[in-house]
Fold this sequence. Notes:
Layout: H1 27-34, E1 43-44, E2 47-48, E3 50-51, H2 62-74, H3 85-105, E4 112-115, H4 118-133, E5 151-155, H5 164-173, E6 176-180, H6 190-194, E7 201-207, H7 219-228, E8 232-236, H8 248-251, E9 255-259, E10 270-274, H9 276-279, E11 292-295, E12 300-302, H10 316-332, H11 334-353, E13 358-361, E14 372-377, H12 382-391, E15 394-395, E16 397-399, H13 404-410, E17 415-419, H14 426-442
Parallel strand pairs: 3-15, 5-6, 5-7, 7-8, 8-9
Antiparallel strand pairs: 1-2, 4-10, 9-10, 11-12, 13-14, 14-17, 16-17
Helix pairs in contact: 2-10, 3-10, 4-5, 11-14
Amino acid sequence: xxxxAPGVTREPMTEPMAKPLTxxxxxxxxxxxxxDFPALAETVNDQPLAYLDSGAxxxxxxxxxxxxxxxxxxxxxxxxxxxxxxxxxxxEAYEDARATLAGFVGADVDEIVWTSNATDALNLVAYGxxxxxxxxxxxxxxxxxxxxxxxxxxxxAEHHAxxxxxxxxxxxxxxxxxxxxVDDDGIYTVADAAAVIGEKTKVIAIGHVSNVTGFVxxxxxxxxxxxxxxxxxxxxxxxSAPHRRLDVRALGIDFAALSGHKMLGPTGIGVLYGRAELxxxxxxxxxxxxxxxxxxxxxxxxxxxxxxxxxxTQPVSQAVALAAAVRYLEGVGLDRIEAREEQLAERMxxxxxxxxxxxxxxxxxxxxxxxxxxxxxADVHAHDVGQFLDAHGIAVRVGHHCAQPLHRRLGFSATxxxxxxLYTTEAEVDRFLAAVAQVRAxxxxx
Length: 446
């Protein structure tokens, strides 16, 4: 990569305490980084691509593309299944990738489970709890069992991936699904959470960073509330892990889900973190080869975690590529990426505030948020806004962003979302703002 890779140190993260002063990435450094991303050299509608949709899928640096290709050329084989040389090389690369991800989030190696994506990771936990509720897993799994009178808590701001699995768990077990409400800006407080979390709460599932509002959840306080009542905490870290340091030990969470394609990695790969004692007690819900120790015609014994959750052929080359993406992020520095994105978010917020007919959702200007901004343009549908911006070479996300309940609460069917990443320039943000300022006039609404 273009920037030198400084040594990475890990200090416990204690959100929401003030972070040490961090120097954001500079425009010159971002310009050098951009040379590592082939897709950013593309043109769209005869204009240079301004890619402001990294909240959906991030672009990949050449080093990540090369890592996967080199594995496929030189080491491609089934893992944990052969005694030949290629099988050994593939298994070593696969497990080295797991160790890299464990270090990235502050976990032990046996606490990292490969999944096909973050949605799969969240379903793994929910359906494992459902199996425990139906008597699977024996005495060790009883801690996960839910029944009538128990409560599952989410927030009104959740991505569907962190809502629907819990709806299904409630339906299967008779538990009640409750939610922490949000205000007119789409955010909530610790007091709001405390009003919902109680003695009946068995599991709490929250997003670390909202993919719609950019709101950063008060995770440590919610963990304290949950654990005081003996509840487990599941964290959707899809919008945080690519952009800020994620220390699962310091946060005290029990499970967390990450998505590879949002953090410079490939699609088809996700990560579930779980505390070792919990993973080893949770019944698997996907079964088959490679996750068993003994099989008879009538029963099977499962391997310890993480293998007990990795049935069948695994996304090996994708895991290798994701590890390369993690090394790239660590080389740049998550603290510097976060600081840079906060600057870009503030630039977007201030610019949008100066444009008539724009309503931004989420934390107000001056309040820390992730590097994404969702907004509504008065009298113009979000899809039309997106097409107008695309005509100017600017890629954004439009729709409900897999968060229909939140949009319904905010009074919208859809919004337009611009999301920045480590390769986003101030000039791209300014191009975006200039184009948004023309939208209402173009559609005859000014």
